[in-house]
Amino acid sequence: MRDNGPVDRRSFLGLAAGGTWVASASERTLPVIDTHIHLFDTRRPQGVPFPPKNHPVLYQPALPARYRGIAAPLGITGAIVVECSPWLEDNQWVLDAAEKDTIIVGAVGNLDPAAPEFPRQLERFHRNPLYRGIRYGNLWNRNLGAALSQPEFIAGMKLLAQAGLGLDSANPDRALIDGLLRLTDRVPDLRVIVDHLLRIDPSEADLRALAERPRVWVKVSQVLRRVDGRVPLDVDFYRPRLDEVFGIFGPDRVLYGSDWPNSDQWASYPQVLNVVSAYFKAKGPEIAEKYFWRNSIRAYRWARREPGQPQAA
Fold first, then answer.
1. Burial of 236 (0-12, 13-18, 19+ CB in 10 A)
2. Which end of the chain is more exposed for a tag (fewer CB within 10 A), N or C?
3. What is the average per-residue pLDDT within 123-129?
4. Phi first, then psi: what are they for 104, rounded to 5°?
5. 179 domain-assigned
6. Distance CA 302, CA 31 (A)
């Protein structure tokens, strides 16, 4: 896809599914920070924990240069890498990969807060300013509800909060939402980012209770779904769930996340982006700006690495 330069709000938010991006130099630009992408290299001698070798779409290298080639022409100016491996040294592998390309503004790693080695491991990776937190939830045979009964786990979460780092949840369900409520009661200073919330149907009461926690953000990610063998690309199909999440969490607590390259299983990157773009266009430029980049600074406290990336006033 040809790079048309900076993308203005009207053209960016009004893109038709699968259409062409057209920028107007006469209008202000809207930078975009993608808060949920994954990196891995299937060519490594030791292989990768994810994706599986037999996956027809995902099993190919997903590296910053490939992501930049897809995302930068669409106006994406930065991205947060979220772990997709339980291997300790893959925390370092992601940081090394991110260091080589300034489109990556942060990385969320994988550590076990209950492990005796957690304080030392956290100190090691936190030395790198790109390290923005860890991920924990329904992934890699972990269970947040069970972990909450371990004093070591709570101590680790408090240490994470004291370091100014955040917690990304993984693959939410009702039990995980309940666990996040209990965790934020016990560690109220911890910043929590909930991924893929639109993929589940939790109780409205639990969501509203979670929204009362001022340090909780949610990603409007993994929005698309396959229905009767096809993936609808019309925003109206997804509007009821989008309205529900936006209505509960409001404009200051929602984040853009593509889930690339997982998103390739449902549609192309421009098509995935267009559904949420069309929705937030109706909210006006101020709310769209919060969703696409301003809220990400508060949630992740990332620092820009190149001039085109935005920064809070």
1. exposed
2. C
3. 98
4. -85, 120
5. yes
6. 15
Is 266 a member of any domain?
yes
Which are the contacts of 247, defined by CB distance < 8 A and separation ≥ 6?
none
pLDDT of residue 80: 98
Band of pLDDT at residue 65, cut at 50, 70 and 90: very high
Kindly tell me if the per-residue pLDDT of 58 is higher than 50. yes
Does 312 map to a domain?
no
The tokens describing 294, both together, are: 């301003």
Range of the domain at 62: 9-300
- Is the pLDDT reported for residue 19 higher than 50? no
Is the pLDDT score of 169 beyond 60? Answer: yes
Query: What is the CATH number for 293?
Result: 3.20.20.140
* C-beta neighbour count of 20 within 10 angstroms: 11
Strands ordered across the beta sheet of 216-220 = 32-37, 76-82, 104-109, 131-137, 166-170, 191-194, 216-220, 254-256
pLDDT at residue 12 above 50? no
Query: Is 267 within a domain?
Result: yes
pLDDT higher than threshold 90 for residue 23: no
CA distance 52 to 68: 24
